[in-house]
Design a protein that fits this description.
By secondary structure, the chain is mainly α. It contains six helices and no strands. This is Transcriptional regulator WhiB.
Length: 134
């Protein structure tokens, strides 16, 4: 029996972005390369697909939010995602969103640049506005 998203505690809305993913129809195993001599080439092949993916920020944000520890998500390996998360901790991320907002970037542009969802940008902007008022 084919597993459904519900088997993993997810609704279809949680993963609606996946409908537009560049990896739809590709072999899912290619995004979970086996350890071994060919892993570098396998990872590179998966990352090439991610590079042309229109929902890469959503995918990366999802993987980080759900602490996905395996596979290529958002074009990053698990180790790269950990580094990305450490670099873009909430305070640092908010500061960067504030800087880009002041530079006139739209929420969507900022979301793409930081590999987060536009909703994350909107929430960060609200936090920054509250801090300015206080
Ligand atoms: S970023 Fe990569 S793994 Fe994520 S949905 Fe797009 S193609 Fe698939």
């Amino acid at each position: 029996m084919t597993p459904s998203w519900g088997d993993f505690g997810l609704t279809e809305a949680d993963l609606a972005w996946h409908d537009d993913a560049a990896c739809v129809g590709t072999d899912p195993d290619s995004f979970y390369p086996e350890q071994g001599p060919g892993i570098t080439l396998d990872v590179a092949a998966a990352k090439r697909v991610c590079l042309r993916c229109p929902v890469r920020p959503n995918c990366l944000a999802y993987a980080i939010a759900h602490d996905e520890r395996h596979g290529i998500w958002g074009g990053l390996t698990p180790q790269e995602r950990r580094r990305h998360k450490a670099k873009t901790g909430p305070r640092r991320q908010d500061a960067e969103i504030g800087r880009l907002t002041r530079a006139g970037k739209s929420a969507r542009e900022i979301a793409c640049a930081l590999a987060v969802t536009p909703r994350t940008v909107v929430r960060a902007r609200a936090r920054l506005r509250r801090e300015e008022v206080a």
